[in-house]
Amino acid sequence: MLLMLVSLLCCVPAATACLQCDRKIKLLIEDLTMSARSIKQQIEMKPYRDHIFEAFKESSRQRKGVIDATTLYRARTEYQNELNRYLNTEHTEQIGSARIETIRMLEMGRRILEKHLDIFIRDGLCPNKCGLLKRRVMDCSSCRYKIYICPSPSGQQDCGELPVQAEEGGQAVLHCFHPWHRLLLGAPEYHYSWARGVPGTEKLNESDFKALVVTDDSSVVLNQLHTEEQGTYRCSLQGQDGTVFYRVTFPLAVAALPDRNYKRPVVPPPSLPGGDDYSPSRPTADLLVPVVAMITALSLVASVGLTFVLGMMMSQRRAAGQQRRRTETRTHIVL
C-alpha cells in the first residue's frame, strides 16, 4: 500500500493544476489505482483519487476558475520540488496510514497552487491598466480553452496622450507598445494616423485624422521633420475585425530652426573722441607731413649717393682700360 501511495504522489506533480483536464495523467492515475493487489485496495484508493481531482478543481474555481501556462508551470515545478524533497527523506517510522499521508501531500500541493493563483489573478490575469484585453486561458471546470475579456478600468480604449518634442530636420519616435499586447488573440495591427495643425489649438474629430501606415511594428520613426508635419498623431491597436484594443495620442511639436539666410546689420565703429592729437596710436595729418618729407629726402640722398658711387666705378674701369691698351702698344713696338 505504501509503495502504491508513493507512486501515486510522484505522478501528481506531473499534472497541471487542472488535474482532471490532463488526459495522460488521468489515465496514469487510473492505472495506478487499478494496479492495487486486491479489489478492496482499489476501492479504498478511489476516494483518494477523486479527492485529488476535486481539490485542485475547487482551488481553481475559487479564483476565477482559469489559469495560464506560466502559472501552471510555476505551481507544478514548486510542488514537484517539495514532493521530491519529502520522498527523498526517510519517513517509514512516521507513516501511520496511506490515507493520512495522501491528505498531507494533497494539502501541501493545494497551498502551493493557491499561492500562485493569487499572484496570477492579482497581477497576471488582467495586466492592462487601460485598453481592452482578450486572451486565451484554460477553464478548469470544462477543461477547455476559452476567451477571457479584461475590460479597461476606465471603460474606454483611449490611454491618454504622450507629448513629443522635436526640432526641424530632426526625428521623432512614436512608441505604441505595452507588454500585455502580446497576450491578445489573433494578429492585431498598429494603425497610425495624424491631423495637421498645432497640437491643442482646436478640437479634433475622427474625420480630421488621415491614415499614415498600418504595420506590425509598435514603433514609427519620423525623419527629417518639417514644421508643416507637426500635429496630432495617433496609434490604434486593432484586430482583424476592426475592434480597437488600445489607442494613444502623440501631440507632436516641431521647433523651427533660425533662418540661415538672415544677415545681421553692419554696425559702424564709434567715432574718435576729440583731444587725441598727441596719441601715438592715432597719428593726425600734421604728424604725417614731416614723416613723408623725411622719407622723401632720405630717398633723394640715397639716389644721389648711389649715382656717385656708380660714376666713380665707371671712371676707374675706363682708366684701367686705357692703361691696359698703352701697355699692349708699347709691347708691340718693341717687338
Automatic annotation (TrEMBL):
<dbReference type="Pfam" id="PF16706">
    <property type="entry name" value="Izumo-Ig"/>
</dbReference>
<keyword id="KW-0472">Membrane</keyword>
<keyword id="KW-1133">Transmembrane helix</keyword>
<dbReference type="InterPro" id="IPR029389">
    <property type="entry name" value="IZUMO"/>
</dbReference>
<dbReference type="GO" id="GO:0035036">
    <property type="term" value="P:sperm-egg recognition"/>
</dbReference>
<feature type="transmembrane region" description="Helical">
    <location>
        <begin position="287"/>
        <end position="310"/>
    </location>
</feature>
<dbReference type="InterPro" id="IPR013783">
    <property type="entry name" value="Ig-like_fold"/>
</dbReference>
<dbReference type="GO" id="GO:0007342">
    <property type="term" value="P:fusion of sperm to egg plasma membrane involved in single fertilization"/>
</dbReference>
<keyword id="KW-0732">Signal</keyword>
<keyword id="KW-0812">Transmembrane</keyword>
<dbReference type="InterPro" id="IPR032700">
    <property type="entry name" value="IZUMO1"/>
</dbReference>
<dbReference type="Pfam" id="PF15005">
    <property type="entry name" value="IZUMO"/>
</dbReference>
<dbReference type="InterPro" id="IPR036179">
    <property type="entry name" value="Ig-like_dom_sf"/>
</dbReference>
<dbReference type="GO" id="GO:0005886">
    <property type="term" value="C:plasma membrane"/>
</dbReference>
<dbReference type="InterPro" id="IPR007110">
    <property type="entry name" value="Ig-like_dom"/>
</dbReference>
<dbReference type="InterPro" id="IPR032699">
    <property type="entry name" value="Izumo-Ig"/>
</dbReference>
<comment type="similarity">
    <text>Belongs to the Izumo family.</text>
</comment>
<dbReference type="GO" id="GO:0002080">
    <property type="term" value="C:acrosomal membrane"/>
</dbReference>
<feature type="domain" description="Ig-like">
    <location>
        <begin position="151"/>
        <end position="245"/>
    </location>
</feature>
<protein>
    <recommendedName>
        <fullName>Ig-like domain-containing protein</fullName>
    </recommendedName>
</protein>
<dbReference type="GO" id="GO:0086080">
    <property type="term" value="F:protein binding involved in heterotypic cell-cell adhesion"/>
</dbReference>
<dbReference type="GO" id="GO:0005102">
    <property type="term" value="F:signaling receptor binding"/>
</dbReference>
<feature type="signal peptide">
    <location>
        <begin position="1"/>
        <end position="17"/>
    </location>
</feature>
